[in-house]
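Dear colleague,

Thank you for sharing your sequence with our group. We've completed the structure prediction you requested, and as agreed, I am returning the results in plain text so they can be pasted directly into your records. Please verify that the sequence below matches your submission; if there's any discrepancy, let me know and we will rerun it promptly.
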Amino acid sequence: MMSNYLKENDVHIKDGTDVNSIMRDMMSIILEGTLDAEMNEELGYSRYDYKNKETDNSRNGYSKKTMHTSYGDMEIDVPRDRKGEFEPQVIKKYQNTITQDMEEKIISMYAKGMTTADIESHMRDLYDIEISDSTISRITDKILPIVKEWQERPLEEVYAVVFMDAIHYHVRSEGRIVKRAVYIAIGIDMSGRKDVLGMYVGENESAKFWLSIMNSLKNRGVEEILITCVDGLTGFPQAIEAVYPHAEVQQCIIHQIRNSTKYVSYKDLKKLMADLKKVYAAPDEQTALSNLDEFGEKWDVKYPKISKSWNEHWPNLATYFKYPEAVRRLIYTTNTIEGFNRQLRKVTKSKTVFPSDDSLLKMLYLAIIDITKKWTGHRQDWGQIHSQLEIYFEERLEGHSY
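Please find the predicted structure tokens below.
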């Protein structure tokens, strides 16, 4: 077909623009021919074959339709029938793009954090295609059923460590701009492989919502979590314990340090941090408690809330002292999930306000898929960590081959 087309039309290709033009013309010929064939099938007879006509319906000319393709915009003639019953399949009634390649390009750009206005401008500049905001939204909306399926997929029975945190965004809702918390759980399974277990959009971060997420993980097949790493949200450990009563809870040391030094005078900060480091970097829990007492004696007069906070949260702050160094490095902070959140923020930084929860969910899901493509293996020190975890959780792992 291409060879004949070039000969019959005496076409000479000079550059890529000529190739695009030819491909556009060829595509329009193929599409119009296919639509005519569909009309023949619908009516039961071809255009001039009146002898075999067995219907009171008939052709009623053509309507013009502009289609967006990777080769640029093109106009095609879509056949009509007199009764308006013809429903073309190769090009649906309200369809205005005809290549999956085009949709993949748009979804890829959306995943990189480009706004719909940026995508519209990019498609116009690069492909000479006019695509409206609403069309881009409709294309990216196809992601939503996939997101739901991903959120409900089955998970492993046992996870060695699960990191949990929330990241916040502004979303437009009922004419107002509201703050939304996106709850994220990242798990490391017993083979050392990391995965995003779930992502949920809700109100401002609360222990109650985290409880519903714990139940969701349970319903998706997670029978046991050995260690959970969380920030200092009030009620968080209780929410975990309600669903996974045997899970160890490690409150993030870095979060605790930030909260402790928030209101410390700059001139005291260096000395106070040096004394505080003797607590969280101690070789064992007994030494850490002794150093915490000394810290209180020295700094309580000026900053009484610091040692009080450490003592109140100590059961969850001191969990990592139970384990050898390799495990400590893994669990004493939520840096694993905070680093992941930073990557999400890079993608979403162009969006100060999302038009809806679904818009936020779509962009974050696409970003997650893009980020996790690089998570191909397990930690290099996992063999050592796994053997140490088995020792400490031998009873809980009994009867399982994890």
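Summary note from our side: The CA atoms of residues 257 and 400 lie 38 Å apart.

Kind regards,
the structure core
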